[in-house]
Amino acid sequence: MEEERISVFDVFKIGVGPSSSHTLGPWKAAQQFVKSLQDSALLLKVESLKVILYGSLAKTGRGHGTDIAIILGLMDCDPVTIDTSTILPIIDGVRQTSEITLSRNTRISFVPESDIFFEYNESLPFHPNAMTFIAEVGEMGQFIETWYSIGGGFIKKEGECDNVDKPVSLPYPINYAADLLKWCETSNKRIWEVVMENEKAWRSEQEVNDGLLEIYKTMRDCIYRGCNTDGILPGGLDVKRRAANMSRSLLNGGAYSDYESWRARVRPSGNSFNSILDWVSCFALAVNEENASFGRVVTAPTNGAAGVIPAVLKYYVFFCDGDDPQKIVQFILTAGEIGSIFKKGSTISAAMGGCQAEIGVSSAMAAAGLTEVMGGSVKQCLMAAEIAMEHHLGMTCDPVGGLVQVPCIERNAFGAIKAITASQLALRSDPALAKVSLDNVVKTMWQTAQDMHSRYKETSEGGLAVNIPISLSEC
Full-prediction pTM beyond 0.85? Predict the structure, then answer.
């Protein structure tokens, strides 16, 4: 395997829901296409623009907000900082005027209903999540780029090599779990310490710590918003948000104007197995209800699985006395490396591997992170990740109506609970007796992904998606 250099900040990205591969990826690809026009001195010459979405992006694109993301990307809105309450007004403005301003610079005619074309019956060979941008630039003819959204918000331009933006040399290059174990043993470091040394190839240790704590804060705030927001999720399924009602029920009522006042009530409420189980589920539901509502979330490693790691991390912070910034950083560093190993050796794209690539990977990441901060050995951390994924193998991606709601939201709660269980099992086990390694399970997951029928890979053409009595024209 060619060395692929992935930072923890590539695995964990602050952005907007509902999908990393169908929303965040196309958003970034659209931004990059406009940048290419600008770099080629063609931006001011653009007369018209069309976008073609292929495969999974076409089949579940509207349900995942791909058309909205494309428009926002072309306008160079920032998914990290955009006020999420302005998203729908911006889109309404484009539709009402039939015009768009590329990179806040070049205003052209643009009709989303006809200039974004959903090619349901064609997929490009490299990846199911493909999109082609075609700009008419006067006498220059057409300027065309094809981009792929390859999972977790990662994008790749057709014909472009990997790592073009990361020409760094890592002190501990890692492609496999065996590499990680080797470096930990030879350097006498824990997983998070090895990962931190690699991160310092890109930025200072202080910048890593500050950045990861900002990621945690975004996760934390997302849980709080989700646990204090009622309503119906958008998209036409009429799914009612449940996290806020669960939170009120667990706290015996009450309204909370800020995170700290809510937190002060939550921590002492989880004194029994049932209440902790309820809270972990509530945290996971809260994040993914926010995700389904175009809220701000952290891709971890995808948006569809964004609730698993925050729920497990909050479990540790609230109920295991883990409210320590350094421990939180260690958790995220460890989890990020496990996600990186899965991306390199298999996939984190549901369009390539089904939901095992999203919920399964996030559960494995969370299990390893939790085991690390609970004092587990390196081998126990890897064992926890293996156990979590082993029991997600073969999970299909069959979103009802092409929306990241049913069964996706509840799956985050189950992924979180499985991660905690996997960690507990690993902490009580001797890894020397394990029959399955993490590398074995990564390999098996990729083989399973290749064997899985395309209808179960984020197309809404199989499973629950065809057995729930609804009808959404875009799917």
Answer: yes
Vertex 395: Cα angle to 394 and 397 (nearest 5): 125
Residue 389's alpha-carbon distances to 25, 85, 257, in angstroms, are 24, 36, 38
Hey, what are 403's tokens?
A: 């929306």
Going by C-alpha positions, the residue among 260, 271, 262, 264 that lies closest to residue 229 is 262
Non-local CB neighbours of 291 within 8 Å, separated by 6+ positions: 17, 18, 297, 303, 304, 306, 307, 404
Q: Is 72 helix (H, G, I), strand (E, B) or coil?
A: helix
pLDDT tens, 330-383? 999 999 999 999 999 999 999 999 999 999 999 999 999 999 999 999 999 999
**Helices and strands (H and E) in the chain: how many:** 20, 9
- Angle at which helices 325-345 and 177-187 pack, to 10 degrees? 140
Sign of CA dihedral 333, 336, 342, 343: negative
Taking a C-beta distance cutoff of 8 angstroms, is the pair 298, 412 a contact?
Answer: no
Question: What residues are paired with 117 via a beta bridge?
Answer: 52
Q: Are 420 and 308 in contact (CB under 8 A)?
A: no
User: Residue 150: which H helix or E strand, with range?
Assistant: strand 142-151
Q: 161-187 burial, b for 16+ CB within 10 Å, e for fewer? A: eeeeeeeeebebebbbbebbbebbeee
